[in-house]
């Protein structure tokens, strides 16, 4: 199973809680830097202790995603998108709308052109800067 790993700059927990709600997913793990034994030679400040070291979320019928808060800047290169192919059009519309809330619609959810015109897809960048392609069969 492939599991995309998403880098965040401090809002990983917020994103994963939101994704769990949107996709009706189950958070398998959220570990914070402060959960690990502290090395006295390399003390952590309180801000770092509150950040997510690793998170994992399982999405029903889709697999899962992992992620973490990174201490260095995260470059947004745009070369990787996450596709979620849903089981039906209603689910696709609901999830697309939820991801688009406070985000940016790149391409609206619409019928695909021939020869794949019995499905829909759309592209959205969510409020966390993650770009999603949402698709589903229409029949």
TrEMBL record:
It comes from the Bacteria. SUPFAM superfamilies: Glyoxalase/Bleomycin resistance protein/Dihydroxybiphenyl dioxygenase. Pfam families: 3-dmu-9_3-mt (PF06983). Signal peptide: none annotated. Residues 3-134 form the PhnB-like domain. InterPro entries: Glyas_Bleomycin-R_OHBP_Dase, PhnB-like. PANTHER family: PROTEIN YJDN (PTHR33990:SF1), PROTEIN YJDN-RELATED (PTHR33990). This is VOC family protein.
